[in-house]
Amino acid sequence: MKNTDNPKHNSKMVRNTKNLISVIFLSLVSILALSTCIGLLLSNAATRRQADASQNELDVLESEGYYTMAQASSLIEKAEANARRQEGDLLRNNFREKLVEGDRIGAIRTLFPDEIVTEYGGQYFFTPIAEDVNKSPVLPDEFTLLSDGKISYNGADESIRVTQGVDISKAQGAVEFDKVKESGVDFVMVKAGARNSSDGNLQEDDNLKSNLRNALKAELEVGVYFYSQAVNEAEAREEAQFVLDSIEGYDITYPIAIDIEQFNTTDVRTSKLSGRIYTEIVRGFCDTIKQAGYRPMILGNIRTFSELVDIHEASQYPIWISYFGYPQYFPYEYYMWQYNKNGDIDGIHGDVNLNICITTK
To answer: Which residues pair with 153 in a beta bridge?
Structure first.
């Protein structure tokens, strides 16, 4: 038998096996390296295609008027600078126009759009506009001042209804209310009376009863107002009850207003009242009217609602703003606007205050 345990033969077989394994391993490494190279080449090609596509997109965007972030930032800075320059020019022009017209307070107001500017006794007051108080649903430019001195609404909101009115007292004498209604007036605010500014006595307007009777006969809507000189809440409630007694038996469908103003004279009993007292007066009057089943309202000028009465308290009731300028300057929501003190209405002899009332459906 042939001996297979020859050491030389076994050594040769081991060497051949190792060589074969080395060849296989090197082949595998070569294949892996080749695959890696091919993958890298493909990846680089895809990256190149993506880069080319992105560049093409940028070229298209730029050709169509689009900009890089840097270009856009530069354009925004230039636009902001130009806007500030234009706004400054507009402010200066408005300021100059107001000064030329002799409207000094109007000129100052153009420089402080976020504040209510008023003047009293030669001193200017600046009150920040309260952001948490409702603003008017009608913008100032949605009104048109007509050639006859009246104001009409030209806004697009069909839910807003604007009616025309006048406020009268004994100063207008005998009023022909039929003619007033035919002239386009919808409502009349009749003066109920006043408290004397010196001795504090309550006085009914001489024409109250006749004005109420004849206005209602002409089928006009009617409300009343009372000129207050109360110095505390108790007197304000007394004034409200005085009005309620005076209008008993008449169909009052519009509000009952307290007229709050302050005059720069020392002999007026309310000249030294604080804002807290004024606010208490308004609250006392309006609560008394409301408890009697009527709708209370506050009549006053810009200063009334910026310096005398707390606007947060006042805004709980309808506001009747007296402002004889155009466009409207009062920033808050208001129910009525007394806008012209030199109105000419058929049936009323002499000048009369013109008003509008704003309601929403």
So the answer is: 143
